[in-house]
């Protein structure tokens, strides 16, 4: 079981502060083809408990919510109740815009999303009731490994982790990749050839 230590949190806070200022008004969303792949993957795996690390204006979240809603319809009520997607955003203005986008999509989408506003290292540190099937790591790279370590105890065996732009942001992702690829790692990982790289990792504890 991975443990998130104080210095992980401190590093993540410090590195992200100035970057957050710069990125506050930037409309960033996963490429459309990546969103389609993620939708299909969630449908194929039957995932119903998803965490999105980094939500921004809520574009990728819509695909996550639609896929979970479909999975739930087909599981004859066997799945857990309540929203299937935990979204995370620390910029209040982005969170507000995301909520507007989801409202435009309708109740099927809105009902599947639990948006946690604030620093995800805090908001994801409690109230994770269910094992996690799927983690989308679409967050500033210094937060990627601390976030993974925070969620790792809740990952179910076979859970999928997708991390965006692992080729173009290889330097920033180095610690995460070293963790995934360590000899004693509980993860198996490969880089999919989407623009910028999309890392698909499976939690495979021994
Ligand atoms: C790459 S964007 C997410 C894009 C979104 N997944 C999409 O495809 O539509 C990353 C987001 O993470 C947010 N973020 C950065 N640090 C955060 C933190 N500590 N806690 C929560 N959100 C954070 C940023 O404000 C930014 O909106």
From TrEMBL:
<dbReference type="InterPro" id="IPR002935">
    <property type="entry name" value="SAM_O-MeTrfase"/>
</dbReference>
<protein>
    <submittedName>
        <fullName>O-methyltransferase</fullName>
    </submittedName>
</protein>
<dbReference type="GO" id="GO:0032259">
    <property type="term" value="P:methylation"/>
</dbReference>
<dbReference type="InterPro" id="IPR029063">
    <property type="entry name" value="SAM-dependent_MTases_sf"/>
</dbReference>
<comment type="similarity">
    <text>Belongs to the class I-like SAM-binding methyltransferase superfamily. Cation-dependent O-methyltransferase family.</text>
</comment>
<dbReference type="GO" id="GO:0008171">
    <property type="term" value="F:O-methyltransferase activity"/>
</dbReference>
<dbReference type="Pfam" id="PF13578">
    <property type="entry name" value="Methyltransf_24"/>
</dbReference>
<keyword id="KW-0949">S-adenosyl-L-methionine</keyword>
<keyword id="KW-0489">Methyltransferase</keyword>
<keyword id="KW-0808">Transferase</keyword>
């Amino acid at each position: 079981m991975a443990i998130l230590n104080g210095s992980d949190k401190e590093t993540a806070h410090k590195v992200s502060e100035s970057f957050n200022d710069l990125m506050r008004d930037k409309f960033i969303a996963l490429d459309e083809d990546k969103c389609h792949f993620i939708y299909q993957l969630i449908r194929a795996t039957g995932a119903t408990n998803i965490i999105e690390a980094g939500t921004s204006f809520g574009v990728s979240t819509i695909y996550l919510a639609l896929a979970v809603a479909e999975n739930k319809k087909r599981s004859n009520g066997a799945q857990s109740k309540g929203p299937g997607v935990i979204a995370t955003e620390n910029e209040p203005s982005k969170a507000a815009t995301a909520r507007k986008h989801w409202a435009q999509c309708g109740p099927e989408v809105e009902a599947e999303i639990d948006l946690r506003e604030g620093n995800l290292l805090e908001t994801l540190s409690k109230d994770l009731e269910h094992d996690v099937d799927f983690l989308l790591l679409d967050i500033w790279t210094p937060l990627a490994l601390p976030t993974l370590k925070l969620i790792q105890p809740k990952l179910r065996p076979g859970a999928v982790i997708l991390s965006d732009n692992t080729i173009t942001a290889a330097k920033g992702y180095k610690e995460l990749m070293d963790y995934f690829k360590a000899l004693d790692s509980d993860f198996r990982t490969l880089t999919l050839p989407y623009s910028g790289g999309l890392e698909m990792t499976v939690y495979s504890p021994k």
